[in-house]
Amino acid sequence: MVEPKTKIISTNSRKNNLNIFSRVNREKGAYFFTLPGNIVLLITAIFPVLYSFYLSFFNMNVYHFSNFSFVGLEQYKKVFSQLDVGFFTILIRTIVWTIVNLLLQVILALFLALLLNVKDLKGKGIYRTILILPWAIPSYISALIWKGMFNYDFGVINIALKSIGLRGVEWLNNPICAFFACVIVNVWMATPFMMIVILGGLQSIDTELYEAAKIDGATPWDSFKNITIPLLKPVMFPAVVLTAFITFKQFDIIYLITEGMGGKTDLIITYAYNTFKTNNYSLSAAFSIVIFLILVGLTIGNMKFLKEKK
Q1: Residues 6+ apart with CB under 8 A from 93
Q2: Which domains does the chain have, with CATH numbers?
Q3: Whether the predicted model's global pTM rises above the 0.85 cut
Q4: CA distances from 212 to 209, 216, 224 (A)
Q5: If you ran DSSP here, which 8-state letter would residue 184 be given?
Q6: 122-162, pLDDT tens digit by residue?
């Protein structure tokens, strides 16, 4: 006689519960030692997210700080419909920012890594040290230095342009110029990380593969296309994904150089902060939750993609 399916499922669930409790009881020492870290994680990461989610359903601001009231989804409606420049405008700008930065970083990093991987290149250590410096310098210091360099009147970039007979560029007054100025700074700062990753991948490729391809009559381009790029993909993909996430939620460069220019150069994260500065805490919380959900969605999509690829 075959047992009912529901009975089998319930029996399996009880076994799983017993396994969980027995595993916790068996490894309680490990759970005890990780408890302080879990408490810190709860206080610094999980609680702020939960509190922001709670706050987004109220109207807490500088005028209703102690006796704010429940308003339901009103703050989320404002996020998507009542912002000065539009949520989707800022989201598209953030996506464009991420794609442009990622493409420039990968192309420039690949070019530099290929140069540093030349066998007979002298002074490799010096070149590597110089090229890694932008990544090693704290981002806020680099952003403030570049902000001074982009100054229209006394910035070194406009002085250099004027010295060769060109007109100075209003880097920090024109939204489009300010956006590309921030792209230049971010590419300058982030490219060394990608370069080091690619250089490590290049040095792990067996040189005998290139020698065999050369014997078979392959051109340098053929070797690059059929050997270098395929063997670099497993190394580059995690770095590209990590860089994409960091670039998508970039804050310091945009804010320190332009402060958003009233929404004209804002990314999604800087606009959320500027919303917070207006003392509308609930609207800022709703904005933060939307950003959080976008990042969660991207993370889940990336995990599924990696799983399917494996």
Answers
A1: 179, 265, 266, 267
A2: 5-55 (no CATH), 86-265 (1.10.3720.10)
A3: no
A4: 5, 6, 13
A5: H
A6: 887 888 888 888 888 888 898 999 999 998 888 899 999 88
